[in-house]
Amino acid sequence: MITFEEAYKKVIHYRRNYGTETVGLLEATGRVLALDIKADRDFPPFDRSTKDGIAIAVEALDGEKNQLRIEGVLPAGNPRAELSDKNNCMEIMTGAVVPKGADTVVMYEDINIANGLATINQNPTRGQNIHVRGSDVNQGATVLYQDTKISGAEIGILAAVGVTQVVVKKLPSITLISTGNELVEVEETPLPHQIRKSNMQSLYAALREEGIVAQQVHLNDQSEDVREGLQKALQESDVLLLSGGVSKGKFDFIPLAMEELGVKKIFHKVLQRPGKPFWFGVHKATSTLIFSFPGNPVSTFANYHVYFKDWLKKSLGLPILGFDVILTESILANGTLTLFLGVKTFMEAGKLRASLVTENGSGDLMSLAKSDGFIRLAPRDTPYAIGEAVPFVPARNLIY
Amino acid sequence: MITFEEAYKKVIHYRRNYGTETVGLLEATGRVLALDIKADRDFPPFDRSTKDGIAIAVEALDGEKNQLRIEGVLPAGNPRAELSDKNNCMEIMTGAVVPKGADTVVMYEDINIANGLATINQNPTRGQNIHVRGSDVNQGATVLYQDTKISGAEIGILAAVGVTQVVVKKLPSITLISTGNELVEVEETPLPHQIRKSNMQSLYAALREEGIVAQQVHLNDQSEDVREGLQKALQESDVLLLSGGVSKGKFDFIPLAMEELGVKKIFHKVLQRPGKPFWFGVHKATSTLIFSFPGNPVSTFANYHVYFKDWLKKSLGLPILGFDVILTESILANGTLTLFLGVKTFMEAGKLRASLVTENGSGDLMSLAKSDGFIRLAPRDTPYAIGEAVPFVPARNLIY
C-alpha cells in the first residue's frame, strides 16, 4: 500500500493535455483560455469623457475669465469634433470623445448654463474627467493570459477586444461507471435488499459544474458484461470514473477485466480513510485513465475531490491552490492512515474555521450534505490542536 | 444621496419570491431546493456488510472454536438469506445483506479458507463491519432542507431517496439592457469613436453561473426607442439590469421614459465609489425591478456583485453569508463615500488575505481580470490598517 502523498503524486503525474477547441463567447464562461488575448486597439480607444458637462481648454480660463461660449453638444457615439476657438467649450456626454482643442472636462454640477454661456464655478485641474486613450492598456498588450479560468470579468474583456470565438482547453470525455447488482435506477422502487444509484449521480452533478457532461454506464456483476462495458468505455472516453468493484469480493470482476483489456494498474490501495481501496490505472493502447473509487458514497465523493479535481485542474493548466482551514476542535489522527474528515466551514474576520461533521462511517451518504469539504490529516502522534491550520479539500462552492 | 447601507437595505427590502418549478434530477445542480426532502426508507435500508469476508454469529466462537463451516456465498443485490445453523457462516460481499442469524462480519484479511471451512485468526467484536439498518437516518426523517443550494452531495442524496423530479425555486427572468450610441456589437470593428459592448456580456456570463439565461437588448439614445424597448422589457421580465443612461447627460432618456411608463424610483445615487449614479426602481404595474448601473465597466460589475447578487440570494431564500479578508496594506478611505476596491486574494494558513489591484478608475475594464472581488470600506478618518479584517464582496469563485 502506498501513502496518500505517493498516490497523489502519481495521479498528478498522469495529467493530460486534451488540446483546444473553439467556443462562442457566451459559451466560454467556466472554460480555460488556451491562448493569450491581446488588445486590438488602445483602451480606452480615444480620450473619453467620464462625466456629463463641458469640454474646455483649461488655458481659456487664465486670469479672471470663467465664462465660455458653448459651441455645440457632443453625445457619445459621435466622431471626434474640434473646438473652433479654444476660448469656447462644447457640452459633452459621458463616453463621448473629447474634442480636439479641449483638454479638460468640467461636470454639470460645477457649472451654470445661461444664454449659450457656461459659467465655471470651480477652478478645474487640467485633464480632469478624461479617461486618456491607451491609459488602461495599449494596442497589442496582453489583456488575458493563457490558462486563465473565464468568468464574467474575462467575458467582458473578450467582448471589448472583439473576440467572438474563444480558443479554450478541451475538456476530457468521461464515462461514469457504476457496478453492483444491488443497484437500481433512481426512478425504481428498490426491493428491501437493493439501493438506488447515487454515487454516479453525485459525480455527474460535480462534473457538470466543471462543464463536463459525462456518459453513464452501469455494469452488472457478470464477467462478460463487465468486460464488454469496459472495453467500449475505454475506446470512447478519455477518463473512466468507477465506483465499486475493486475490493476483494468474489463478484468484483473489474480488476481481472482491466488486466485482460490491457489496462496497467498504477496503484491499488492507499493508506487513507475513507477510500483505502482506490485503484488507479491507465489503458496502454488508448491512454484512457481509470479512477476506480470504492463503492461507499463518502469514499467516492472524497476521492473524487481529493484526486480527480486536482488532476483535472492540472490537465487544464490551472494552478492548484492549496486551501487551509483553522480547526475549532482538537483531533487525533495517529496510526498509519491519512484521514479525510468532513467539515463545515465558517468565515470569521478573514479566517476560515472548520468543525467536524458527525458522520456514521464511509457509507453515510447523508453526512455529505452537511459538509463543505474534507480536512486532510496526515498521521501523526500528537493530536491536531484547536487553532491549527490544516489542508482543506473543498467539495462545494464556499465563497461566492 | 443616500448611504451604501441605506441603498443596500432598500434593495434587499425588495426581495421577491418567484415561486417554484420542477426540474429533472440531473438539471437540479446549482438550483435551490423549495421543499424539505425526507428519507423514503431507512438508510441503510438493511444491515449491510461493509467488507468482503464472512458473516457469522459471534456467539459461535465461544471457547476455543475458531473454525466455521461455510454455508454459501452472499453477493450484493441478493435478498436476505438465513444461516441454517448459527455455528456456520456465509461468505458475504461488500454491500450485501447480512443474513438472519449473523451479527458480525469478519473480513477475508483476517481469515483462512480451506475445505469449506473458515478459520478466524483474530477475535472479532460483535457487530463489526456491519452498517446497521437506519443508523444513518430513519425513514421519514428530513435529509435535505428547503432553501439548500444543490451541489453534487445533494444530488446523491436526492437520487438515494428516489427523487427524480426536484421542486426548486424559480429564477427571475432578466433582461439586460445596454444603452448608448457609442456601442457596437462584439463582432463589429468599431470606428475610432465607438467601443464594443462589454458590460452586458460580463453580466450575461455572471448570470449564467447563477443558472439564469438573460435576454439582451440594446437601446439607442433616441427617446422613442428607449420608451418602446423599456416598455417591452418591463412586461416580459421580472428584473431589468441596465448599464448607462442614468447620469445627467442630455441624451439619457431613460429616467424620463421610466417615469412615463410608471416606474417608481426607489433611489438614485449612492454615496459610494465606484457606482455613485446607481438607480433603483420598481414598475408599479408589473412589480418588475430595475437595477440601473452606471455605464463604466467597474461600476456596473461592482454594483452587480454588491447589490444584485445578494438580492438574488435573498429572493431565493439563501443565506447571505458575510465574507471578510485581511488587508496586507493600509488604506485611507476618508471622506463621505463607501469605497469598493478591487483586490486579489490569497489564502495562507486559513487566513484569506487581500491586496489592492492597481486600476485606472472605474472605466478600467482590464483591471477586473486581476481582481477576485471588492473590499468594502466605509468612510472613516483613521486609515484601515494592515492585518485588519474588512468586508469582502467576491466576484469570482475563490475556493473550489
From TrEMBL, chains A, B:
Pathway: Cofactor biosynthesis; molybdopterin biosynthesis. It catalyses: adenylyl-molybdopterin + molybdate = Mo-molybdopterin + AMP + H(+). It comes from the Bacteria. Residues 175-314 form the MoaB/Mog domain. Belongs to the MoeA family. One of its GO terms (cellular component) is cytosol. It comes from Cerina litoralis. This is Molybdopterin molybdenumtransferase.
